[in-house]
Design goal:
By secondary structure, the protein is mainly α. It has 13 helices and three strands. Helix 5 packs parallel to helix 13. The radius of gyration is 21 Å and the shape is globular.
Length: 365
């Protein structure tokens, strides 16, 4: 039985595609960060070493969630939520957080830097899926209160991109559980109003929207980032400049190894290379969607659907920003961008996905 499960795990595209993307991402992290790592830390492999260490830990997290019966998450959902709320609150305590570019999103604990908002993606999916396994007529206000608290804490960091993804994913699960259309209209209009207000009352966010609409409006200011992304992608052409020959890695492109790593991939490997990356994501989504839609268990179906939508949203938001279909939001590219908290979260999520698929196949026989 153990050997059989091991074979299923090693041949499962739900794991193998993200793993290949992560290994490829480590090479691209080196390409994107070697110059800055050498200048700041005197070690060209600084970020590569860290991401490789996170990958080892992430595989352990994947195996934990893959082998743990996902039905047990129902009982742990409230504890996970409370623990995540505690971490989100710790971010605002002096001496515990790291501030980067005006954002307070990271906790410094025991030499590790963690981003609680990333873990919120996992805990919110688990908690809502467990909650929605039982049908209730009067939970709209409770749902709004819960999601508003979590999203509000993320917005205060501030992290509007993650807040948007959390809100969209939570709303999707709410309506997948059988909520009426009228609730959707209320949530959509409310989110649109609050989002517009947040943009209009924040000069920085408003300037980002203006720059999105007209990237040439402030080339040396807030428009610098998107214009450097455009330069990287245009340099790549059809086939790219070749691995190791990036010009943008010489600290022209901000966040090159994190949020903007797709631009470095485009510069190195061109349209052909980026199309292969996009193709890998598409195969992952199609394969996993086919598996999840066959799941009869309500908890498994809600968990799988929420996870799949979350990954899809994050890929679309990141790539949409890279090709100027969406404003820049600081959302990392799943499995590829540098970041330990993001990697741990996504490997936990695909562990749950693979677990659900495994159980569904077992019960279908």
């Amino acid at each position: 039985m153990g050997a059989k499960n091991k074979g299923n795990f090693l041949n499962n595209l739900t794991f193998i595609i993200p793993f290949i993307l992560t290994v490829f991402g480590i090479f691209m992290i080196y390409e994107a960060s070697s110059i800055s790592a050498s200048r700041i830390f005197n070690d060209t492999f600084y970020f590569v070493k860290h991401q490789s260490g996170w990958l080892v830990l992430a595989i352990g997290v994947f195996l934990l969630f893959y082998n743990l019966d996902y039905h047990l998450l129902h009982g742990f959902s409230l504890l996970m939520l409370l623990g995540n709320l505690f971490l989100l609150l710790l971010v605002f305590l002096p001496g515990l957080y790291s501030e980067v570019l005006g954002a307070k999103r990271w906790l410094n604990i025991g030499g590790f830097r963690l981003q609680p908002s990333e873990f919120t993606k996992l805990t919110l999916i688990v908690y809502l899926s467990a909650w929605f396994t039982n049908k209730e007529k009067e939970r709209f206000l409770a749902f709004i209160l819960l999601t508003s608290v979590l999203i509000g804490l993320v917005m205060l960091q501030p992290d509007m991109g993650t807040a948007f993804i959390l809100g969209a994913m939570a709303s999707f699960l709410y309506f997948l559980s059988g909520a009426p259309l009228s609730h959707f209209l209320i949530l959509f209009s409310g989110a649109l109003s609050i989002g517009g207000l947040m943009i209009l009352t924040s000069p920085y966010r408003l300037q980002r929207v203006i720059t999105f609409l007209n990237p040439a409006s402030d080339l040396q200011g807030i428009g610098y980032h998107i214009n450097q992304i455009n330069i990287a992608l245009s340099l790549g052409g059809w086939f790219g400049v070749g691995f190791g020959n990036s010009r943008q890695k010489f600290q022209f492109l901000p966040e090159a190894h994190t949020d903007s790593i797709f631009a470095i991939i485009g510069e190195n490997f061109g349209l052909i290379g980026t199309s292969l990356i996009l193709g890998a994501y598409i195969v992952f989504f199609i394969h996993t969607f086919k598996q999840i839609r066959e799941v009869k268990d309500r908890l498994g179906f809600l968990l799988g659907s929420g996870i799949l939508l979350l990954i899809l949203l994050q890929v679309l938001v990141n790539l949409g920003a890279m090709v100027q279909l969406l404003p820049l939001t600081g959302i990392p590219l799943p499995f590829i961008s540098y970041g330990g908290s993001s990697l741990l979260t996504f490997y936990a999520l695909i562990g749950i996905l693979a677990n659900i698929i495994k159980h569904n196949k077992r019960h279908a026989k």
